[in-house]
Design a protein that fits this description.
globular, 3-stranded mixed sheet, 8-stranded mixed sheet, about 35% helix, binds fe (iii) ion, binds 3,4-dihydroxybenzoic acid, alpha/beta
């Protein structure tokens, strides 16, 4: 049977893609952030996942304001990387796993989640940067991917509680897949940030820290907040933390293997967590 071997969450700030393309990982601005991934690289080299289920938000590349699904799951054989306007070099295409994708889609629809099924899908910095952080070089990418996309861009957004339930359903779907696969679940985005408006530059270290800690011992903690409360606490883009929450909800008890929290990367309080299931 398929098994979730870990959950990794990381910010996906576009500037990370440029820093990688320009080889800036050891520059003072970037070093602490990139060094935070060293234990994750060691863990991935040992654990060797076959597939990454990657929970992310599209930023106007594949979906736009005219048509905005709440939840979408990719079922494509391949996902091309593209740039929706940040001028980040594209990366090599990602290989999909359509059979696992359709199993996830069938399973979550059977649990009353109405997902948009995407047999063609472009992926933006919210997939490409985390993949490049986790598997530097990416030539070829050592895992297949199943993208799970959640709207954090156009209101109304799905609640944290709803996302948590979707994550749990994804966990059950993986556990019922009758093929021996090692699956890592990735959540991208966050932590607190606001890119525009009166609170542009807003960061809330205290809330971010509480949220990160909750993911180990009290993962449903963030579900007590409404979407508006989460935006108040974390900024209008900080709401991307629901993507971390969805990924985390796919596994049960965990222990923390690695963590990093670094202010700022661009406008963002950047965070990373690696969690491993405990028996
Ligand atoms: C930034 C962060 C994001 O999550 C994003 O999607 C775009 C920009 C930033 O901090 O620059
Ligand atoms: Fe973002």
């Amino acid at each position: 049977m398929a098994r979730i071997i870990g959950c990794i969450t990381t910010s996906h700030v576009p500037a990370i893609g440029k820093a990688i393309a320009n080889g800036l990982q050891d520059e003072p601005y970037w070093k602490e952030w990139f060094d935070g991934f060293k234990p994750v690289h060691r863990w991935l080299a040992e654990e060797k996942p076959d597939v990454a289920v990657i929970v992310y938000n599209d930023h106007g590349l594949n979906f736009f304001l005219d048509k905005m699904p709440t939840f979408a799951i990719g079922a494509a054989p391949e996902y091309q990387s593209a740039d929706e306007g940040w001028n980040i070099p594209t990366v090599l295409p990602f290989t999909g796993d359509p059979a696992l994708s359709w199993h996830l889609i069938n399973s979550v629809v059977a649990e009353d989640f109405d997902v948009t099924m995407c047999q063609e899908m472009l992926v933006d910095h919210a997939v490409c940067n985390p993949m490049a952080l986790l598997w530097p070089g990416g030539d070829p990418w050592p895992v297949r991917i199943v993208p799970v996309e959640i709207n954090t861009v156009q209101f109304p957004l799905p609640s944290a509680a709803r996302c948590y339930k979707l994550g749990e359903a994804i966990g059950r779907a993986v556990a019922s897949y009758p093929k021996d696969l090692r699956v890592v679940v990735i959540g991208t985005g966050g932590l607190s940030h606001q890119l525009d408006g009166e609170r542009a530059g807003f960061i809330n270290k205290d809330f971010d820290r509480k949220f990160m800690a909750s993911l180990t011992d009290d993962p449903a903690w963030a579900t007590r907040f409404s979407t508006v409360e989460l935006v108040e606490q974390t900024g209008s883009q900080g709401i991307e933390l629901i993507l971390w929450l969805t990924a985390r909800a796919a596994i049960g008890g965990v222990r923390e293997v690695a963590a990093n929290y670094h202010i700022p990367i661009s406008n963002t309080a950047a965070g990373m967590l690696l969690l491993e299931p405990v028996a």
